[in-house]
Design brief:
- By secondary structure, the protein is α/β, with parallel strands linked by helices.
- The protein folds into 4 domains: 193 residues, P-loop containing nucleotide triphosphate hydrolases (Rossmann fold), CATH 3.40.50.300; 62 residues; 65 residues; 72 residues, Winged helix-like DNA-binding domain superfamily/Winged helix DNA-binding domain (Arc Repressor Mutant, subunit A), CATH 1.10.10.10.
- The protein is built from 20 helices and 10 strands.
- The strands form 3 sheets. It has a 5-stranded parallel β-sheet, with helices on both faces. Strands 8-10-9 form a 3-stranded antiparallel β-sheet.
- α5 packs antiparallel against α6 and α18 packs across α20.
- The chain is globular, with a radius of gyration of 23 Å.
- It starts with 15 loop residues before the first helix and ends with a strand.
């Protein structure tokens, strides 16, 4: 049987305690902020929570619930207006695919059309309020899941957060929100978000890397869905090396199944994965999102040095998010792959032999841009050209931007070409 969403195939006990905790919050109409490393598996868990039939069945008893996922990866432009349009559209989508009175669907459809035609944020927000109250009027409690909320950080303003609170207040707090961010709502836009906005951040849940049992569930699901192959004896070592970080696991499975790869010995697995360019890019993303103090704490843990109370306080995020965890004799880093990356950063020299060398991904990107010299290369087209093996899993904007930055720096030294950023669209290679 073919499933549209892979997380529907997971057994019901996947991340059981997390499911139980979120369920209790939503039954109380709390708003929840999910916090964790980027691509650690928050979206993976929420897809399980939103679409798994047995999990959803818990919300079909005395009270009816409507879960409205709004994935901000779907934003073409990261503007507040686009955010409100997308939110209203997802409300409409969920109503149309649920068992509401057809008149309710038509009412909300008219509100949506009115909103996009007006191109006015005030009208869009008011129509969102009307739509939600129409849903509540039918005895249904809505929850809006804002996935990857960090993507709106540059456009967020005090008015934006006030409007979110206003939407919740207009429903007499029968609406709840679930946000996913890497640091919390105050980090999305710290200059404008007020810590007193308790209605938006009533509860925080830190999602740490998955345990071995849950990692095996994810691993087996991907092996079955995409007909991937790895030796049975290697699976447990793969799970250990990736440390419960879902993006590492997904990238590792892709790399191990490429035609030219033939890793049969467990002892070779760690070196192979640690040298995989996609995994190294992901490790760079993780490291660069940490503060200087947090990075110094990581290095002390790497070198088995003890941490002072002040260091632990300053680096509380590392513990809360699972970057490090308490072990016998001190603290440990969540993944041996990430440990190896840190060691390489320390030991790697930047010496130059006078020749510009491109990595495999840099070469693919440069070749694609050169083939389209002077033309705008959309991000989607870049993904197809550089990451065809990961297109179904998704490639982060950060990974694209980071690869472009590395290539831009290298070709700048040659002086023949320049990469120009085309805002909201992509990149263009021009000749100097």
């Amino acid at each position: 049987m073919e499933f549209e969403i892979i997380e529907q195939t997971y057994p019901e006990q996947f991340r059981h305690n997390l499911t139980k905790e979120l369920t209790q919050h939503l039954e109380k109409r709390d708003s929840v902020v999910f916090i964790g490393m980027r691509r650690v598996g928050i979206s993976n868990f929420l897809r399980f929570f939103l679409y798994h039939k047995k999990v959803r069945s818990r919300f079909t008893g005395k009270f009816r619930y409507l879960f409205i996922p709004v994935d901000l990866n779907d934003l073409i432009e990261r503007t507040i207006s686009s955010f409100w349009v997308l939110t209203l559209k997802r409300i409409l989508d969920c109503v149309e695919t649920s068992d509401f009175n057809p008149k309710t669907g038509k009412y909300i459809e008219n509100l949506f059309l009115d909103g996009i035609q007006s191109k006015n944020n005030f009208i869009l927000v008011e129509n969102i309020k009307k739509s939600l109250n129409k849903i509540i009027g039918e005895g249904v409690y809505p929850t809006i899941f804002f996935l990857r909320f960090d993507r709106i950080s540059e456009a967020a303003s005090a008015d934006f957060f006030a409007n979110l609170e206003g939407i919740q207040s207009a429903t007499y707090n029968k609406l709840s929100f679930v946000f996913t961010t890497s640091r919390g709502l105050n980090s999305v836009s710290p200059k404008v978000f007020s810590h007193t906005s308790l209605s938006l951040a009533q509860s925080q849940i830190f999602l740490k890397p998955a345990g071995e049992t849950d990692s095996k569930i994810v691993c087996d699901a991907y092996l079955n869905r995409y007909n991937l192959q790895i030796p049975i004896s290697m699976e447990s070592e793969l799970i250990k090396l990736t440390g419960g970080y879902i993006q590492y696991l997904q990238l590792a499975l892709i790399s191990l199944n490429e035609p030219e790869v033939d890793i049969k010995k467990i002892k070779d697995l760690s070196e192979f994965l640690s040298n995989d360019e996609r995994i190294k890019l992901q490790s760079e993303e993780l490291l660069e999102e940490l503060t200087g103090g947090e990075q110094r704490t990581l290095l002390k843990v790497l070198n088995h040095q003890s941490l002072s109370k002040d260091e632990l306080k300053e680096s509380r995020y590392l513990l809360d998010s699972g970057f490090i965890f308490s072990s016998k004799g001190g603290f440990r880093i969540f993944s041996p792959i990430f440990e190896n990356f840190l060691k390489s950063k320390i030991s790697k020299g930047e010496g130059s032999n006078g020749k510009i060398e491109l990595s495999k991904k840099e070469h693919l990107l440069f070749s694609f841009l050169k083939e389209n010299l002077g033309e705008v290369c959309e991000r989607e087209a870049i993904i197809e050209a550089v990451w065809p093996e990961e297109e179904a899993l998704g490639v982060s904007d950060w990974a694209i931007d980071r690869l472009v930055a590395r290539l831009r720096k290298k070709i700048k030294e040659e002086g023949e070409y320049e990469i120009v950023t085309i805002k909201t669209r992509g990149f263009k290679l021009i000749k100097n």
